[in-house]
Amino acid sequence: MAKAVGIDLGTTNSVISVMEGGRPEVIVNAEGARTTPSVVAYKGDERLVGQIARRQAALNPGATLFEVKRFIGRRWDEVREEANRSPFKVKEGPGGSVRIEVNGQDLAPEQVSAEVLRKMVADASAKLGTSIKDVVITVPAYFDNSQREATRQAGEIAGLNVLRVINEPTAAALAYGLERKGNETILVFDLGGGTFDVTILELGDGVFEVKSTSGDTHLGGADFDQRVVDWLAGEFQKEHNFDLRKDKQALQRLIEASEKAKIDLSSASETTISLPFITFDPETRTPMHLERTLTRAKFEELTADLLRRVREPVQRALDDAKLTASGIDEVILVGGSTRIPAVKRIVQDIIGKTPNESVNPDEAVALGAAVQAGIIQGDSSLGDIVLVDVTPLTMGVEVKGGMIAPMITRNTTVPAKKTEIYTTAENNQPGVEINVLQGERPMASDNKSLGRFKLEGIPPMPAGRPQIEVTFDIDANGILNVSAREKTSGKEASIRIENTTTLDRGDVDRMVQEAEQNAAADKQRREKVEKRNNLDSLRVQALGQIEENASAPQDAKDKLKAAADEAEEAVRSDDDAQIAGAQKRLEEELRTFMTANQAGQEGGQPQAGAQGQPKADDDVIDADFKPAE
Ligand code: ADP
Ligand code: MG
């Protein structure tokens, strides 16, 4: 059986890992990196994913998509404000959903995330030498139902079989706790690029039990960057009366420089932000430059309110777990933003303990996801690990008067199932519409509607007589299924979901197809480049042979040189048939030449690369795919 992998599909960075000999290991990507930026760029009809996409962002701001996880499974009215800050175009889609417009095409956030997943899995498949299909994907614990569902669909669109969607802090706890013996209560504090999660777990004897979880899906490192962006732009505006945020390219450079400054300030107490030629004076058309020094103290002042915002979720998690800070044995820091000194300070301040830094904040989540994949696949090296997770938010239905009637309250262990009986409010009511809600507020309208369910075909009865049995069923992924049945009549009625922001079956199928076609086109393009590169390196090798064997007969050298010249011409022509012909001829000539000259030299074996199947073909391709610096 092919191994299942664990993927931390992050807002900013993604990481993939697999169980190797009883331990989870990160799998490096094709670029040799352990983390892959969750960035997708569209360039013509080509898609660039990861570092290569990130690097060209400033040159291609409208079609370089990053932090798309902020939009996945969300409604337009929830993200409108963030959308407006984005250098690419985010807009309202069908049914109040979110779409990203790139080169005149509307993309669902799921499709963009699918591109990241596809690259991660393709690279990992190549590294492991086996085709990977089964994955466990992590989501912030505080993700609601539609965000989870949308993440799972992203996996489907990428052609994957999503075994499970698990909570990021729970995964981090798995990675941390794998080698710990004894009982302890831990608090996982995960502050990444776009989201904040806090989870309290009890560990002991292979049981990982989540006690409570809380968080803020709108708080992360990017918000800290934004504060620096606003400060820089504000200062610039004061001086030049020009708002840099209105210029897409300038904005992208500001964002990058601000993030870099923030990262610098995690180790330095002061940093200089220098952006020459940031824009042109609209009147005089002379170039304008930006240069500013930012101190750590000023940065902490700019972000003070963001820092304060982590307190409440931590307190809520403690309350829900019926604990006080002193009941926490260890605090585990996860996520790149926990490297900010002020963040560490505030954690220490709230819990009164020095955070434990034994896990790598960038990798713990993916490692834990691989452990979970191993558990699901029955990896015997893991022993008996039991994972008990909870649902982060209350789910219920809207009842008369616009109130929410909770069905499953937050921090209930999942999977969970609950049935309640409802009835009609009017005589001879033929059907009911049940609004399924998620959230903690008492009024229905203040919570998120996950969908509306219609139960139709109720036989005529006086008000209050029908027995409408509504069942909420949360699976191990934290994803909800709802069913309803009218009991008095014994008649099962149909149920349908309307108005959710997640994609419907038809959309998903179409996107799967599109993604596959795109992947096939990308593959073809890659192969074409690969063939051209192979021929080119073979040509270089041939010239090297001629040089090394200067004493060889002139006509042999001439023949090889002619084949090399023909290869050069073919590479330039970019014509498939010509490339194939030249490759064949050059291979033959090179082999003949080398055989004839073998007697004269040591190690005259044709190299692996000479057979048209260069061993290091990946390197050749990568070199050609890199954007000009
Ligand atoms: P995600 O889980 O959202 O993908 P990560 O855990 O990879 O995010 O964290 C990414 C965030 O961490 C980014 O906002 C990045 O700027 C920030 N970050 C990374 N390293 C540092 C650092 N040394 N100091 C401050 N912030 C950092
Ligand atoms: Mg993360």
From TrEMBL:
Bias (Basic and acidic residues): 555-575, 615-629
ATP-binding as UniProt keyword: yes
Tagged with keyword Phosphoprotein: yes
Gene3D superfamilies, sorted: 3.30.420.40, Actin, Chain A, domain 4, Substrate Binding Domain Of DNAk, Chain A, domain 1
Pfam families associated with the record: HSP70 (PF00012)
Keywords for the protein's UniProt record, in alphabetical order: ATP-binding, Chaperone, Nucleotide-binding, Phosphoprotein, Stress response
Protein's name in the database: Chaperone protein DnaK
